[in-house]
């Protein structure tokens, strides 16, 4: 009997996370978070997602003053803020995937109050890491037809 190592299928990833070169593997993602993200990273998210900056900033949970300060100082998003940026990108990626990469439908859904979130829009609910996880959970339930 021979033992072989597991080799993933190599299926090409698509979507926002892949476009932004963000890993979904926890170990690699953790390393990316330790490195932090450039100040312009949110602009890359806006550009690649084709969503409005206001929606992206709400989902990421960063206020405009912090965004402006980072842009002016060219400082990196690090620590808890980097985690919010990463998780926000995950939420946006999942929302776009839910609507077959249609940014208009995804944005409309993100900004519409959801009964499953206590009549709060997903973009407002996702202002912190726990809210981001709740929105990801809701998207997963919608994709798999699980009643809320």
TrEMBL record:
InterPro entries: Antitox_Xre, Xre/MbcA/ParS-like_toxin-bd. Pfam families: Xre_MbcA_ParS_C. Residues 95-145 form the Antitoxin Xre/MbcA/ParS-like toxin-binding domain. It comes from the Bacteria. This is Antitoxin Xre/MbcA/ParS-like toxin-binding domain-containing protein.
